[in-house]
Specification:
By secondary structure, the protein is mostly helical. The chain has one domain (5-349). It has helices at residues 5-11, 17-28, 32-39, 55-63, 73-103, 106-115, 123-135, 147-167, 173-176, 182-202, 209-225, 237-251, 256-272, 280-290, 292-297, 305-308, 312-325, 327-349. Residues 328-333, 335-354 and 365-375 have low confidence and may be disordered.
Length: 386
């Protein structure tokens, strides 16, 4: 599949028909508050839906309660093992590469500024981390899991944002297309999959080609459950490289909102890092993973750690070699990675379970104008655009 400027322009005009219709009906009937209240009690797959749930919401939840029929469960198990093997590295890549990449797209940064939790700036990172952990559990798609209800709620959250921005005339659809359109949703899918793999490679993490492909496949399944048109999504890593390159060249650039969100992210993780001595490593990691020009656009500070962080791949390479050669070393590092991820997530969530509610209002000041370990090591596909 080769995406062109014309095909990507077409994706900008499409949203998510099922979720959009559900949210529109909830607002028309004044049932959003009832829905949010009752859905706080729906947190595990297979649980009985509460009495009093609006009928349109019940129909939506029934229609989206199972993953797509085409899922290869063997591939999903490979993805889960890949996540276990690399959990702390994936968390690092999500935090310091994928999220800043979202902020590099000005219209996405503006949108995120409207929907960021006002209670504390870690809300979106906490939701993303919790969502990923739910996804990679052994029972993610079985009764009792938390992933499927989370995916159903996130899909409605996106639809509600489209509803608000369109109905309140706070989005320039002529210039920007549909808010949270298919192109941007696919772009987000690429950030959390392809860009994360790129970052792991940049950090010197040892990955098999099979593991990398499985991780990318898992995010295709996630995208399908979030209402992303999988007919338009790249099927292979080579196709993903082409789409990601073209998407970033089409849209990335500096913005006040992107710089502000990045500053929030840096402040957040400097609070998580114990003490103050290692605080500059947060900015240094972002700059290392996204590159100097994008980091300058995001106003990521230059620090004395910028040079030090370049040695991280060498250090991780030594640890990865130990992990590859020693089953005991692999177990110990996997456990350390798991505990590190749990600590980071608990710090972000502050011990709370994150709820993905349909917002009844947006910010008033918002507006937009214009392990699978193998011998064959994975290397990223080459850039497709000069």
């Amino acid at each position: 599949m080769t995406h062109t400027a014309a095909s990507m322009d077409a994706l900008r005009r499409s949203g998510d028909e099922l979720a959009d219709a559900t949210v529109a009906t909830l607002f028309e009937r004044g049932e959003v508050g009832t829905f949010n209240t009752l859905m706080r009690y729906v947190s595990t797959a297979g649980a009985p839906l509460p009495d009093g749930l609006p009928e349109v919401a019940r129909e939506y939840l029934e229609a989206t309660r199972v993953p797509p029929a085409w899922v290869d469960w063997g591939e999903m198990e490979k993805a889960r093992l890949f996540f276990i093997d690399n959990s702390v590295h994936i968390t690092t890549a999500l935090s310091f590469a994928a999220m800043p990449a979202c902020y590099l797209v000005p219209h996405v940064a503006k949108l995120l500024s409207a929907t960021h939790g006002l209670e504390y700036p870690s809300k979106r990172m906490a939701e993303t981390g919790q969502f990923t952990v739910y996804l990679m559990q052994p029972d993610a798609f079985e009764a009792g899991s938390r992933f499927i209800p989370a995916a159903q709620k996130v899909r409605l959250l996106h639809a509600s944002i489209r509803h608000h921005l369109t109905r309140e005339n706070r989005w320039d659809s002529g210039a920007l297309g549909t808010p949270i359109c298919q192109e941007d949703m696919i772009g987000g899918q690429m950030f959390f999959s392809m860009l994360v793999l790129d970052s792991l490679h940049r950090l010197g993490i040892h990955m098999s080609a099979e593991g990398a492909q499985a991780y990318y496949y898992a995010w295709r399944v996630v995208g399908a459950m979030l209402g992303v048109d999988q007919d338009a999504v790249p099927k292979s890593l080579d196709e993903a490289r082409h789409f990601l390159d073209r998407y970033m060249v089409r849209h990335m650039g500096p913005s006040e909102e992107g710089a502000h969100l990045t500053r929030q992210l840096i402040d957040l993780y400097e609070e998580v890092v114990p003490g103050t001595l290692f605080d500059p490593i947060v900015s240094a990691l972002i700059r290392h993973l996204v590159g100097d020009t994008p980091a300058d656009w995001l106003r990521v500070p230059r620090t004395s750690w910028d040079t030090v962080v370049k040695a991280v791949p060498h250090l991780l390479g030594v640890l990865e070699t130990l992990e590859d050669r020693s089953p005991l070393g692999a177990w110990a590092l996997d456990r350390l990675g798991h505990l590190s991820s749990v600590f980071a997530l608990s710090s972000l969530t502050r011990g709370r379970v994150m709820h993905y509610a349909v917002p009844e209002h947006l910010r008033k000041d918002y507006g937009v104008s214009g392990s699978v370990r193998g011998a064959r090591r994975w290397t990223p596909p080459a850039p497709t655009l000069a």
